[in-house]
Amino acid sequence: MRILIISDIHSNVEGLEACLAAAPAHDRVVNLGDIVGYGASPNEVTDRARKLGTVVVRGNHDKACSGVMGIDSFNPVAGLAALWTKQTLTPENLDWLKNLPQGPIEMPDVPGVHLVHGSPLDEDEYIIVVRDAVEPLSTTPAQLTFFGHTHIQGGFAVDGEQWETLRPVYKTRDQVETVELELKKTAKYLINPGSVGQPRDGDPRAAFVVFDTEAYKISYTRVPYNIELAQKHITDAKLPERLATRLADGR
Q: Which CATH architecture has domain 2-249?
């Protein structure tokens, strides 16, 4: 089975459509949350996510924008975007986001694989560096966990006493590129597909992962998309300018 894994779309329909167009043939789509927030196309993105027949876990922005949680923990820019998104979402999309399940959940039909937005220990926790990954990897029963939240493509692995930070290395910043990672049966992994709609690893291209369950390998991919149009939607909606400018920075 080939599984397309996406995360952190953040209301960026241009990034989402670019990823779906570039993705190879696959049997299933998994969505790790933060479908909305920040960007200016929350209904377009939510409609698309619903039609994909995805396996979905909720993100913190999905909770905030649908009223499941408050925005007290958000910075002012994120908070303003969340309030705007909540007011802009259709009742149907608001209700769908409100009822997304909390991670971690098990991947249907794929034993030993879990899905979460933040961390196996806390759905809102950030796993940014390897020390953040030690407790989750040490305690989770899953051999492989897909997570998002940080907007940083890569992940972490432990094999016996050996700990490793995983970061795909690309040759360009303006083409579709894929980097493959063969997984070891003896290791445990936390794999982050990166962000579709707001990368923060220095590469502004949209990001996703394809997991081949039979070959037991990961294909990291980066895809250029129409950043200028996504920025225009944000400025036209009168959302904070920083939400537009950071798309070109990849930060």
A: 4-Layer Sandwich (3.60)
221 CA to centre of own chain: 13
Task: Give per-residue pLDDT as tens, 24-59.
Answer: 999 999 999 999 999 999 999 999 999 997 899 999
Task: With CA atoms as reference, report the closest residue to 56 among 40, 41, 38, 35.
Answer: 35
From start to end of the chain, where are the E strands? 2-6, 28-31, 55-56, 105-106, 113-115, 144-146, 154-159, 162-166, 177-182, 188-192, 206-212, 217-223
Instruction: Give the 3-state secondary structure of residue 185.
Output: coil
Q: How would you write the pLDDT of the chain (251 residues) with one tens digit per residue?
A: 999 999 999 999 999 999 999 999 999 999 999 999 999 999 999 999 999 978 999 999 999 999 999 999 899 999 999 999 999 999 999 999 999 999 999 999 999 999 999 999 999 999 999 999 999 999 999 999 999 999 999 999 999 999 999 999 999 989 999 999 999 999 999 999 999 999 999 999 999 999 999 999 999 999 999 999 999 999 999 999 999 999 999 99
Tokens found for residue 251:
């930060």
- Segment 210-213 long-range contacts (CB within 8 Å, at least 24 positions apart): 210/2, 210/3, 210/4, 210/5, 210/23, 210/24, 210/26, 211/2, 211/3, 211/5, 211/113, 211/146, 212/1, 212/2, 213/1, 213/2, 213/3, 213/110
| Residue extents of the structural domains in the chain | 2-249
Q: Is 25 exposed, middle or buried (0-12, 13-18, 19+ CB in 10 A)?
A: exposed
User: Residue 222, SS3?
Assistant: strand
